[in-house]
Here is the input.
Amino acid sequence: MAPTSSDEQRPDEAVAPYGTGSASTPRTARVRVHHLAQAKERGEHFAMLTAYDQYTARIFDEAGIEMLLIGDSAANNVYGHETSLPVTVDELIPLVRAVATSAPHALIVADFPFGSYEASPAQAIATGVRFLKEGLAHAVKLEGGAYYADTVRAMVQAGIPVMAHIGFTPQSEHALGGYRVQGRGDDAARLIEDAKALESAGAFCVLMEMVPAATAAAVDAALTVPTIGIGAGNATTGQVLVWQDMAGLRGGPGVKVAKFVKQYADLRTALLDAARQYHDEVRTGQFPGPEHSF
Ligand code: KIV
Here is the structure.
């Protein structure tokens, strides 16, 4: 969607908004919702990662990641809970703000935690306003299907861009009977209807988690807005992973890694080795040496 007048087009919007850019076309623009729609129109893909702090936000932004999600998965990956259910808006807002102020290019998406939007559209608007005003997010994400269409509509009317999350929705893990693939067989039709209802309500993007690749492809084909997948095959417009999974920080004895995760690094081993070496050098009196002393 091109700006409609030169007044609306800031100089930085003339260059490539996604990817890492190049010397001739540096990535100086902020990724916006309409850039994601353009990506789908052009048959391009984009990437989202979770981030919960300034260093990862800066690094992922520098790498060209188009969207950063401050997921309610902070419950597990930051606060150490078993599920995503306990995390609160008050606990997420400082993380959202840290990421938003550290990433100059990525679109920042704040995740609605369990209990922060289900009661009414008014509750959802109030939570969305907090994430945009106090957290400096650019958009929010909520879990749920067609049932939340009125909520999404009300938020979009209030000026809050909404990403909808369907398929396996971790906040409902007790209702769904655990981590289970959704949208198999006849259930695919329900997922398509959910996605269409959310698109009609104004969602700018639909995220699908743990959905068969064929179902996710059918959902993507049924929608005009872009889709994002996690465990949903490769026909979606974008992909998302939790960064600790992507970089291999989460792992070790007894930790199960989901089938849909690809580990692009082994940060756990790198950190473990570094911490062990530091420990040894402190215990043996090698650190600090003269070069680290005043
Ligand atoms: O909270 C989160 O990290 C998420 C992703 C798994 C999509 O919702």
